[in-house]
Design goal:
This protein is of the alpha/beta class. Helices cover 46% and strands 16% of the residues. The longest helix is centred in the middle third of the chain and has 20 residues. The structure holds 5-amino-5-deoxy-1-O-phosphono-D-mannitol. It catalyses: D-fructose 6-phosphate + L-glutamine = D-glucosamine 6-phosphate + L-glutamate.
């Protein structure tokens, strides 16, 4: 049941902290605080490159995974949505890693892409929530997300569970390839283990998120912005808003705005941005200043460290706890999903069963 929540989506949003914790618990040894993956039938140290594919939210999780794999493990990564990947016929180096991500394990395009990768000699590793699924059966190895059943058609907790697995995988690949030191691993694991507690604090921000929702509920189009590993967070926010509120939303890498989409901006197009402190903070702030100068209404997610700088600029600022840059996209995801839910409530849509959508897309 819904345990007293109004919708499964609301219940599942509140499960983020627990799900992140349970997923990490499977992959991190509590005694040594080191990542310990289940035995794999291939050697991560010898994998020359990785190719990542998935659909929808799972694909956005994969995009964040790519940033981590590249940065932490210095491994070349190619990525595409499964519906494209399956027909691309990319030349793949034999012995490479084919990384699939799926909540259901039944998505037809993801399964077809898997088969194409297998035919091209890739080791198939799948990040799955349903561990008894077709994709699981056809994989060489499975890393489970411990999200429990996800009922809401709009994915929420499965996404942060996927990120938790991908973060651990990136650490494991980095250690295997010697691009990450033991001290480096300790620091990254420390920031992962801190996440469930920090995630729990985000629900206190609901009142400010509701204020944002009131602005968005009156709009016809919404722009989502982010840079680096928070660009996929913007994509996830825009997808979630479209799914549950039926408001048109588009996400852009913030630096790409001046190459076209900035022409859309006026008082009627709210701009939602995910801007945690870190390397790309000032770059993103200057993109937001450009939007502000054109009359854009800025609704900004940041962290406590970035909040001061953004208060003068944005109409509404929501500051999540400050964490390491590495784990920031995991925390930033939670409020953008909450925002979509709050807008759906204001719109009175069928939150858990949006029109035209199915939970599991088993046809091409
Ligand atoms: O079961 P999967 O993770 O393979 O599903 C992939 C997408 O269909 C799914 O993420 C979809 O985009 C969700 N409705 C997003 O909220």
């Amino acid at each position: 049941g819904k345990d007293g929540y109004r919708h499964y989506m609301e219940k599942e949003l509140h499960e983020h902290p627990v799900v992140i914790g349970q997923t990490l618990q499977r992959l991190i040894d509590p005694a040594t605080r080191r990542v310990r993956l289940p035995g794999l039938p291939f050697d991560l140290a010898r994998v020359p490159r990785a190719v990542v594919t998935a659909c929808g939210s799972a694909f956005y999780a994969g995009m964040i995974g790519r940033y981590w794999l590249e940065r932490i493990a210095q491994i070349p990564v190619d990525i595409d949505v499964a519906s494209e990947m399956r027909y691309r016929d990319p030349p793949l180096t034999p012995g490479g890693l084919g990384l699939l991500i799926s909540q259901s394990g039944e998505t037809a395009d993801t399964l077809a892409a898997l088969r194409g990768m297998r035919a091209r000699g890739q080791h198939i590793l799948s990040v799955l929530n349903v561990e008894q699924s077709t994709i699981a059966r056809e994989s060489d190895a499975v890393l489970g997300t411990v999200a429990g059943p996800e009922i809401s058609v709009a994915s929420t907790k499965a996404f942060t569970a996927q990120l938790s697995v991908l973060a651990c995988l990136s650490i494991a690949v980095g250690r295997a390839r010697d691009t990450l030191s033991a001290e480096g691993e300790e620091a990254l694991v420390g920031s992962l283990l801190d996440l469930p507690g920090r995630a729990g604090e985000i629900f206190d921000l609901a009142p400010a998120i509701r204020e944002m929702a009131a602005v968005i509920a009156g709009a016809r189009d919404v722009l989502y912005l982010g840079r680096g590993a928070c660009f996929p967070v913007a994509l996830e926010g825009a997808l979630k808003l479209k799914e549950v509120s039926y408001i048109h939303a588009e996400a852009y890498a913030a630096g790409e705005m001046k190459h076209g989409p900035i022409s859309l901006i006026d008082r009627t197009v709210p701009v939602v941005a995910s801007v945690p402190s870190g390397r790309l903070f000032e770059k993103t702030v200057s993109n937001l200043q450009e939007a502000r100068a054109r009359g854009g209404r800025l609704l900004v997610f940041t962290d406590t460290r970035g909040a001061e700088r953004l208060r003068g600029l944005a109409e509404i600022v929501v500051a999540v706890p400050t964490v390491d840059e590495f784990t920031a996209p995991i925390l930033q995801t939670i409020p953008v999903q909450m925002l979509a839910y709050e807008v759906a409530l204001l719109k009175g849509t069928d939150v858990d069963q949006p029109r035209n959508l199915a939970k599991s897309v088993t046809v091409e």
